[in-house]
Design a protein that fits this description.
Number of strands: 50
Largest sheet: 11 strands, antiparallel
Number of helices: 6
Distance between the termini: 43 Å
Radius of gyration: 29 Å
Structural class: mainly beta
């Protein structure tokens, strides 16, 4: 996250030292404060997205292993990671020694102003009269030591005019006396001749510069506030690059505030003069806090959701839950589709088992401005646990949104452990059901999880095969999306879609209906993550039902070149299973309506559903959508939300549902029903394998309440109503702060080593006001495919 330009400008020190200092200061048109570039800058909201092309081949990719606490001078110190175009650099900040300077640096980091900036200066200790000329790439004397590498001042995008812009800065800070020296590997603040002038620019000391840059020297001193603990070779690589005097380069001269600042710019291999491009420069692709202050753990887990949009009609809420046995630090980062990319909107610590509700935006409260208005965004929930937690789990997260007189909610997905790369499964996402209609506002949205731009193709398929494909490019860590309702190439109706990306992404569908006049009325909404990775020959849905007055359909999508014969099994405990065979042709889709006469699925009954294909080489993806068609899109009629989710093929050691909550009149009405359906994935109870579970409710004061133990039969679901658990209901009614909570599924099976969470689904319905949503739980811990042999034999580990 971050931006802007400051350099040293001390004259008359003489010798090689003087030359080094003169380019360390806030480098504008001169040495004085009055000659510095304007700090006003462009509005954060008005800034447009920047695209960084393929840069120099990376020496170290994002996803470098996190440091350890033993690498730090103090386990209480904050650590920031710069993901640069040449590799990752981890910086320990001296919180106690330099509190003002550290806070200033973190303000730029947390508000995204260091993101997508470039290092504009690489200096050696040359003779004072030496001036770097265009093409003068290195000092002629190789024994001349390196001096500094400087950044934090400027961003460049060849697609914009002007391409060069200044980082928007805060008020200057004092030159803080920290007692730390400008020795090799340290980071310090740049400034002008005035001691109280540092803003956003910083520099890395490439050698021991203490004799010239410390407090008490003729320079007046520069505040050291941290040191590089990992990735020093990356900084050295930047220092060793060719450098060019780009002061008069046509790409930069349109920005007069950069005059004098671009005399020693490190450039990537291959640049030989002429126009500067994005790939010419060494970029800070992303700057992020990876360890908070006063917490002995790194942010190693991330859960995200890509469907945020603040408007005058939207109310958005984030719920998070700590499933770990110890406390967890968290930070919530909003990543935007355009403008400044990142912003930390909330941070803190959650006790073990605690639940937290964070209002993100409110249609009724315009002062709630955690996120920017009318700019699509994703939410990332980073978490860190202390060293005493042996098996850290990510925080649970649920993101809820009310808009267009309707309501949606979805559990966030674990996207990446920061010590590894995002899963390659996240490069393909399938959506079994995508509607295009005049009164639908249908969006497929995604979040680029990579520090490289992503090339994205969205292909749509109808009942007769592929219809059309569209392509996009989404910048590093940017949120992107597609308005399906605006695609002229589709002729209306229901489709399936495949989203394929060159980089890992998260992908989600949101569908918001509007009435024919725009007034309030029957305007259902629904949302669902796509299905990541490969299609599978078998999948389960814990709960589906024919709701009176609704049309409920199961969508089957065959993305292979082989015809798939699919058996849908509708399962009720103690009742005959209803089977329906459906043929799905290659690269096409099919709909099975539960309203089909003679199907045998009764109105009002709850079923678990399994799909199974006849061939291993013709797997499918499947999902369900339930909508009220009577009066749909008509103004003045009661609104009714839709229900939508996809089938699951994964089972975790436990399953987490963060979006629980009843008895909140601001959220739902008084007739709300909340159910948790848990599916037993075992095909037999023989040889052990008898599955049992209980539901554990987690409240914001850390209280946990367990339900009774349930024992669903093999391949069936048990449906549990929250209102039927007396102790839970009493806790909810004991205070308004307990109306929202998380639910974990704690399960086990005899004959099986380790915990089994089953497949869980949360459904909330208030028929009186038409509010509803359904979402699958987040599987945690060891993940198993439903075809795992332990579910067939009932034994194993």
């Amino acid at each position: 996250m971050g931006r802007w330009s400051d350099r040293l400008n001390v004259r008359g020190l003489g010798g090689r030292v003087g030359r080094g200092l003169s380019t360390l200061m806030s480098r504008g048109t001169g040495a004085s404060r009055s000659a510095r570039p304007s700090r006003t800058g462009a509005s954060r909201v008005a800034e447009s997205a920047r695209f960084f092309e393929s840069l120099e081949a990376r020496l170290v990719f994002a996803g470098t292993a996190l440091p350890s606490l033993s690498d730090l001078e103090s386990p209480n110190n904050t650590v920031v990671r710069f993901e640069t175009s040449l590799g990752d650099v981890d910086i320990e900040l001296f919180d106690a020694a330099a509190p003002i300077t550290v806070q200033n640096f973190l303000n730029y980091t947390r508000t995204g102003r260091f993101d997508e900036t470039f290092f504009h200066r690489s200096a050696w200790r040359e003779d004072p009269g030496t001036v770097v000329q265009p093409g003068n790439q290195r000092p002629s004397d190789p024994s001349i030591p390196r001096f500094v590498v400087q950044g934090g001042g400027f961003a460049f995008d060849e697609r914009q005019s002007p391409g060069l812009r200044n980082v928007t800065t805060d008020a200057p800070i004092i030159r803080e006396v920290t007692g730390r020296s400008n020795v090799e590997r340290t980071i310090a603040m740049a400034r002008t001749n005035e001691l109280t002038s540092a803003t956003s620019q910083f520099f890395f000391n490439m050698a021991d510069n203490s004799s010239t840059l410390d407090i008490g020297t003729a320079s007046g001193g520069f505040t050291v506030f941290g040191r590089v603990i990992q990735g020093w070779s990356v900084v050295q690589t930047i220092s060793n690059l060719n450098r060019w005097n780009l002061t008069n380069n046509a790409s930069f001269t349109s920005n007069p505030s950069a005059a004098g600042a671009m005399a020693e710019v490190p450039v990537n291999t291959g640049y030989a003069g002429g126009a500067v491009t994005n790939s010419t420069l060494v970029t800070v692709v992303n700057a992020e806090v990876i360890k908070p202050a006063n917490f002995a753990g790194f942010f190693s887990q991330v859960v995200a959701s890509p469907d945020g949009f603040r408007s005058s009609s939207a109310t958005e809420t984030l719920k998070i839950f700590n499933p770990n046995t110890g406390s967890a630090a968290y930070q919530v980062v909003a990543r935007y589709e355009n403008g400044l990319r990142d912003d930390v909107i909330s941070s803190g610590t959650l006790n073990a088992g605690a639940h937290l509700t964070i209002p993100v935006s409110s249609a009724a409260d315009t002062s709630l401005n955690l996120v920017r208005s009318r700019v699509p965004y994703s939410l990332y929930v980073y978490s860190a646990v202390g060293s005493g937690v042996t098996t850290p789990a990510p925080l649970g997260a649920s993101f809820e949104r009310q808009d267009f007189n309707a309501y949606t909610a979805e559990e966030g997905l674990e996207v990446v452990n920061l010590a590894t790369a995002p899963s390659s499964d996240f490069q393909t996402w399938r959506f079994p059901s995508v509607e295009q209609a005049n009164q639908s506002r249908t969006f497929i949205v995604w979040q680029n999880l990579s520090d490289d731009p992503a090339s994205i193709v969205v292909n749509f398929h109808g009942s007769a095969g592929q219809v059309v494909g569209v392509t996009f490019t989404t910048d590093a860590y940017r949120r992107g999306g597609l308005e399906v309702h605006s695609l002229p190439l589709l002729g209306g109706g229901t489709y399936s879609a495949v989203v394929t990306s060159s980089r890992p992404i998260l992908a989600m569908l949101a569908d918001w209906d509007v009435t024919t006049t725009g007034a309030a009325g029957a305007s259902p909404a629904w949302s669902s993550f796509g299905i990541a990775g490969a299609a599978r020959p078998v999948g389960f849905l814990p709960e589906v039902q024919r709701i009176p007055g609704f049309n409920t359909s199961i969508s089957l999508f065959n993305n292979t070149e082989v015809t798939s014969v699919v058996t849908l099994s509708f399962i009720r405990p103690g009742q005959p299973t209803v089977d329906r065979v459906q043929v799905v042709f290659p690269q096409s889709r099919a709909e099975v309506s539960l309203e089909t006469p003679g199907l045998g699925v009764n109105v009002g009954e709850v079923y678990a559903v399994r799909y199974q294909t006849n061939q291993i080489d013709a797997p499918i993806t499947a999902g369900v959508v339930s909508l009220q068609f009577s009066g749909r899109n008509q103004p003045g009629t009661p609104s009714a939300d839709g229900l939508s989710t996809v089938f699951s093929s994964r089972v975790g050691s436990s399953t987490l549902l963060t979006g629980g909550g009843i008895a909140d009149p601001a959220r739902f009405g008084s007739t709300l029903s909340e159910t948790v359906s848990v599916f037993n994935p075992f095909t037999t109870g023989a040889n052990g394998g008898t599955f049992s579970f209980n539901l554990r409710y987690h409240f914001n004061d850390g209280t946990t309440i367990d339900s009774q133990t349930f024992n669903p039969s093999p391949l069936t679901s048990t449906v549990v109503r929250t209102q039927d658990i007396a102790a839970v209901l009493a806790k909810i009614n004991s205070g308004t702060q307990f109306r929202n909570y998380s639910i974990s599924v704690v399960g086990s099976a005899t004959g099986v080593t380790g915990a089994i969470g089953g497949i869980a689904q949360l459904t909330l319905v208030d028929t009186a006001i038409g509010r509803a949503f359904t979402t699958l739980g987040t599987p945690l811990g060891t993940l198993r495919d439903v075809n795992d042999s332990i579910f067939q034999t009932g034994t194993g580990s």
